[in-house]
């Protein structure tokens, strides 16, 4: 039965490596194809990186020569890998902040920044109005309600362990004060974690008696520690969607849930058969791709596969050796060219 051929996608998805090499060759025609292919394999070693780099060069090939700090960092890495080979037209992108050709490891919107400029931009973004004085200053801490505080107006230090233990004693857990204090300190070792739990228990005391799915992960850690020590009135929360008592490590609709309910909320109809499937990748149009059942019936036959690009080579080891100036390894002998080693006949000596 003949196989049906699926719709051909854009070239940066079907032949990303060939597209990258052809774009570089159009900019630097003097470079040998082996050198360009070796540089592409070194910079973009995975399929995702190849496609991301190919899409950027397909959309804006001028990024190789304009020095504009845009696009993925793979463009900068590719230029750095090719410049020692004697390029004349490739230009490294310059930092959008200082205009220097440093390593652009930070991102500010669509612009790329070096480390120093990126840290400055990040520091400016972390400035928020203080909840006390209202000045736009770096956030030094936050209060129990989550409001930012500056360095001069840090929240008043309180014994949150004692406050949490006081709330636990009202629930008649059957544990003594020392044990409760040790459990709280172990479940919430950081001061801001204890402040968060205190605010949650004051706002919703039912978190410890069955409604823990609507609390924070640190509150769930406290509940698990109390249950493990045999607290009488503390209840392990169930998943609010399937009502199973299991680990609630995911969030769905402002509540903690189990993995099964989290996956069910992320199901989307397959773009080919319409069945509900988990989304792992998407088509170029943004739709979920065909599921495995559809792929098995629409996968093209080997004879219908597209012919490889003239720049595509399957022997990547030979390309790397050629780029490095080393002698390539001789090919292995086939079965018909190899002859069995001669066997030695044992010699019997006369007595």
Low-confidence stretches: 1-7, 297-343
- Can you give the helix content as a percent range? 25-40%
- Note the beta-strand portion: 5-15%
Rg over alpha carbons = 31 Å
3D shape: elongated
Average of per-residue pLDDT values: 80
For the secondary structure, the number of strands is: 10
Order of helices and strands: HHHHHEEHEEEEHHHHEEHEEHH
Mind describing the biggest β-sheet?
Answer: 2 strands, antiparallel
Secondary structure category: mainly alpha
Biggest sheet strand order reads: 1-2
Quote the distance from N terminus to C terminus.
74 Å
Instruction: Work out the helix count.
Output: 13
Describe the structure.
With 351 residues, the protein is mainly α. 37% of the residues lie in helices and 8% in strands. The protein is built from 13 helices and 10 strands. The chain has helices spanning 11-14, 16-27, 33-43, 47-59, 73-82, 115-125, 160-169, 177-187, 191-203, 217-228, 259-265, 292-298, 316-324; strands at 106-108, 111-113, 127-129, 136-138, 141-142, 148-149, 250-252, 255-257, 267-269, 276-278. Strands 1-2 form a two-stranded antiparallel ribbon. Strand 3 (127-129) and strand 4 form a beta hairpin.
């Amino acid at each position: 039965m003949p196989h049906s051929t699926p719709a051909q996608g854009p070239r940066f998805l079907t032949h990303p490596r060939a597209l990258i090499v052809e774009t570089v060759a159009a900019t630097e025609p003097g470079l040998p194809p082996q050198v360009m292919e070796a540089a592409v394999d070194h910079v973009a070693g995975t399929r995702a990186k190849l496609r991301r780099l190919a899409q950027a060069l397909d959309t804006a090939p001028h990024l190789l020569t304009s020095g504009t700090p845009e696009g993925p960092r793979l463009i900068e890495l590719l230029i750095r890998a090719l410049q020692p080979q004697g390029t004349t037209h490739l230009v490294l992108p310059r930092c959008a902040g200082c205009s220097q050709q440093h390593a652009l490891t930070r991102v500010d919107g669509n612009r790329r920044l070096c480390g120093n400029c990126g840290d400055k931009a990040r520091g400016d973004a972390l400035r928020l109005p203080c909840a006390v004085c209202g000045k736009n200053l770096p956030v030094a801490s936050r209060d129990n309600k989550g409001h930012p505080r500056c360095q001069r107006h840090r929240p008043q230090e309180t014994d949150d362990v004692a406050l949490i233990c006081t709330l636990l004693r009202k629930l008649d857990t059957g544990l003594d004060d020392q044990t409760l204090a040790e459990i709280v300190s172990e479940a919430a070792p950081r001061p801001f974690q204890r402040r968060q739990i205190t605010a949650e228990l004051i706002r919703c005391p039912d978190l410890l008696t069955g409604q823990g799915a609507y609390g924070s992960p640190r509150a769930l850690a406290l509940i698990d520690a109390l249950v493990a020590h045999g607290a009488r009135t503390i209840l392990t929360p169930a998943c609010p969607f399937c009502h199973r008592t299991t680990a609630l490590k995911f969030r769905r609709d402002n509540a903690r849930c189990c993995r099964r309910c989290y996956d069910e909320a992320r199901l989307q109809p397959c773009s080919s058969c319409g069945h509900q499937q988990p989304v792992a990748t998407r088509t170029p149009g943004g739709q979920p791709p065909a599921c495995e059942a559809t792929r098995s019936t629409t996968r093209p036959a080997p004879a219908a596969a597209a012919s490889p690009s003239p720049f595509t080579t399957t022997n990547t080891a030979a390309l790397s050796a050629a780029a490095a100036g080393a002698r390539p390894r001789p090919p292995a002998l086939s079965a018909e060219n190899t002859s069995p080693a001669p066997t030695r006949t044992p010699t019997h000596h006369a007595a």
